[in-house]
Amino acid sequence: MKPFIMTADKAMKKLKDGNKKYLDSETGKGNISKALRLYTKEHGQHPYAIVVTCSDSRVIPESIFSAGIGDLFVIRVAGNVIDDHQLGSIEYAASHLGSPLIVVLGHTCCGAVDAAIHHDPEGYIKFITDEIKLAIGDEKDDFKACCLNVRRSMALIEHSLDIAKMEEKGMQVVGAVYHIEDGRVEFL
């Protein structure tokens, strides 16, 4: 396993500071320069956080956390649900890239959570809503359901043997909710 590039606490501070910048921004704040693109091509990526979030087009982790190229390893899937593919991606970023922090980032006004609460979809969407239903049970409040869904994804990540070993060495798994209405990230 590659050593962590920084402590999980320092990574969390960078995310919180980045979100504060974002709240007052009109344009992106992360470094996307040509020089950084060339540097990461030659030296690889060293993301300080892994962010598992929803595919919703209003949820843009790099913007939300004022991050640039190489800062975040982002995994997106509707409803920020976890399966073996996401776990494999998380384990890769944690063990090979040295990312010390995993953030499961849910959001308000989530269509997947709403579908799990109020509808019974068919097709492949059902795979997503069934996972969310396991997380939320009979909960009907959208925000509470979102938080329960985030916590279930966190538990599934922490259940991974590789992640459990990395947590012993300082890695952290945290949950958060992005408030679409004002841009604020609330860490759970």
Automatic annotation (TrEMBL):
E.C. code: 4.2.1.1
The keyword Lyase is annotated on this UniProt entry: yes
SMART domains tied to this protein: Pro_CA
Signal peptide start-end: none
UniProt keywords, alphabetically: Lyase, Zinc
Gene3D superfamilies in UniProt: Carbonic anhydrase (3.40.1050.10)
Enzymatic reactions: hydrogencarbonate + H(+) = CO2 + H2O
Family: Belongs to the beta-class carbonic anhydrase family.
Protein name: carbonic anhydrase
